Amino acid sequence: MKIITLLTDFGSFYPAQMKGVILTRLKDKDVAFVDIAHDIPPQDVRAGAFALLSSARYFPSGTIHVAVVDPGVGTGRLGLVVESGGQLFVGPDNGLLLPAAKSLGSPQAYKIARRFEASNTFHGRDVFAPVAALLAAGEKPESLGPRVRPKTLSFGEPKRTGSGIEATVIYTDRFGNLILNMQKLPAFEVSLKRMKLKKVRTYAEGRRIEPLITIGSHGFAEIAVNQGSAAEAFCLKAGDRIELEEI
Description:
The protein is α+β, with helices and mostly antiparallel strands. It has 2 domains: 147 residues, 3-Layer(aba) Sandwich (Rossmann fold), CATH 3.40.50; 88 residues, Bacterial fluorinating enzyme like (Elongation Factor Tu (Ef-tu), domain 3), CATH 2.40.30. The chain is 20% helix and 30% strand. Strands 2-1-3-5-4-6-7 form a 7-stranded mixed beta sheet, sandwiched between helices. A 7-stranded mixed barrel has the order 9-10-14-13-12-11-15. The protein is elongated, with a radius of gyration of 20 Å.
């Protein structure tokens, strides 16, 4: 059985078409689809890259990940197959695939040079889904095109400032937790917008509606509000820069 994951910003409607294309091409072969996420904020490549990075490590060797957050669809941007750590990643060459691929090993990227009959606006269905089916059927990534140097994507680094730490919100989950581009908690107590953030190991260590900062299950620092939404409380979203002020 082949495992194929899907991650997109498409919502609930379009991914079914991608699955239909794959199933039609693979016919009687057993396929297990896993939907990582289809609610990535529209065109938010960084959020998609974070979600893929956080998920890929839990899949077995041989998994094929199809990830499509593609503001450049229909332009001259390349399509890629990236091989790393025994897993394959299929999607646009806009940095979306690279954090996850790098986390598993040393990525080798191949341009999708094979031609497909494709619309100008839905390469997820018309290019990347057929490529996933070819790979699931046993084709090697190198058969699809030449080696290339892929575009990379960085979440950036937190910066020490005179008054604290400057960081970036890289993802907001459905609980309103603000995930930051930090993998360690500050060595000192901090506040955000003049509200102290309690350093905790678990959400329940805070009082109800108390702002917290912790290391999440993904390995990144996150700001949360116990039984509430940090995104709403602080009026923040993915992509925002914040200042964690030293207390």
